[in-house]
Sequence to fold (325 residues):
Amino acid sequence: MRRASTMTAALLGTLLLSTAAASAADIKIGFLPGVVDPFYQVMQLGVEAAAKDLGIEVVTQVPPTWGVEAQTPILDALVARGDLNYIITAPTDKDQMVAPLQAALDAGIKIITVDTFLGDGDYANGPVTFPISYIGSDNVEGGRISARGLAKAIGGKGTVYINSTNPNVSSVEGREQGFAEVMKNEFPDIKVIGPDYNLDDQNKAAQQTAAVLEQNPDLAGVFGTNVFSAGGAGNAVVNAGLGGHVQVVAYDATAEAIELMGKGVVSLVLAQKPFDMGYMAVQFAAADAAGVTSLPKRVETGFAILDKDNVTDPNFARFIYKTGN
Ligand code: T6T
Fold:
């Protein structure tokens, strides 16, 4: 009797294991990031690494420009394929991407959002609850860290400027909010101007920053809220011959931001963890397919904060976005 029940348990275990493994290998995932940039390229490396480790097929489509106009038709085409079980995506607008992603869900595709969220990002109690999870940085906190870093770099007083991408994007909006909140509450001698919105165009960011530098000869610092904002702002400061006089805090650890830090133009770089976001999102899809029901609705992936003193330390340098060999 005892022997029989042991055998039954063992058999059941094998059956359960093979069911779980089969469902993970059987799923197909669509990966739809925000735009072509080093941040999402590293995220794609994470997606691909997890897909390889778990034996899952992934179809990746990257919008050439930022925004719902570019992202929605690609999403619709991914849904129309009819062979995807999950879509991992970074919504380019927290409100306007709700309906197209709801339509994907209605077509039987489960959604995981990475980097950006829908609604208010609270998928347990918020206005949007259908995604499995939101995996990404705490961007409000990132904005606060950026503000304190910039305040320190400029000696706690002066005028600073925010250059950002688009309104209604959860990531950069959170960064702007956290930044403005800390400047208001902790640094009464710092005045904040902006944000200007560059529509994720680095040349536009450079032009906007150049204009602000001209109109505000005493400008002390700039917060560039993402790859293109920080890159454009940094280049404008260099072109105006103000490197070292106007401090830039850069969100996103691109090679360009690190180079600008070496020149004394950028004082602080916030590295997000896009590889982790991509890797975990695929793991979450596999776990969901295997029947896991307690996946967290929110995963914060954290930051590495790079400055000239730690940037050559391998424990920090490993978070610089590396897209090639
Ligand atoms: O900063 C990242 C990302 O977090 C944001 O949502 C959009 O811009 C980037 O992709 C950088 O270009």
